[in-house]
Design goal:
rod-shaped, mainly alpha, 6 helices, 176 residues
């Protein structure tokens, strides 16, 4: 808690931003791990346990015309991909905003440090200045510590969604 107090008031928005980002990373990671696309390679029948992919396989193996199957399969695939993309945009926003909040905290801290230095009548106190800069830089470090994992997670989840979309499309094309 001492680091939070030393970093100044901008540490609180960073903490508030980091909590849902961490929750989303953990929830999405578990979701992606628990819901892989159930079919690898060619198969002419739906898998036994499709889970979240049930609407996709139901549409693909329905007794309707090929045109109707294509429409329903495409719609089902879009809905599934939407569920996989849930909350991922927040990670991108976090990766963008956290360093900016950190930089803002640094600027505010530097203004405060120079203000104290200008107000001191003892002349130039390098210790006071160094202490102020050190405290100000804590928010930049905190912003980067939050942004980097959020950005990496966003990129990984986005790549997994693209891979899933490709697997579903290839499978549907083989069946249709």
């Amino acid at each position: 808690m001492n680091v939070v107090a030393q970093g100044g008031m901008m540490m609180w928005p960073l903490i508030v931003l980091s909590i849902p980002a961490l929750a989303i990373i953990l929830e999405r990671w578990i979701f992606f791990i628990c819901h892989p696309f159930p079919v690898k390679g060619a198969a002419s029948t739906p898998p036994e346990t499709p889970g979240v992919f049930a609407p996709f396989f139901d549409a693909l193996f329905s007794d309707e015309s090929v045109t109707e199957k294509e429409k329903k399969t495409t719609l089902a695939a879009k809905e599934i991909l939407f569920s996989f993309n849930k909350s991922i945009d927040f990670l991108s926003t976090t990766a963008t905003v956290a360093p900016l909040l950190g930089l803002l905290g640094t600027v505010v801290g530097m203004v405060q440090a120079f203000s104290k230095l200008a107000g001191s009548h003892a002349g130039m106190d390098i210790g006071l200045l160094a202490d102020g800069i050190w405290h100000a830089l804590l928010t930049t470090a905190a912003g980067l510590v939050i942004a980097i994992p959020a950005l990496l997670a966003h990129q990984w989840f986005t790549a997994k969604v693209r891979q899933l979309a490709f697997e579903m499309e290839c499978y549907a094309n083989r069946i249709l």
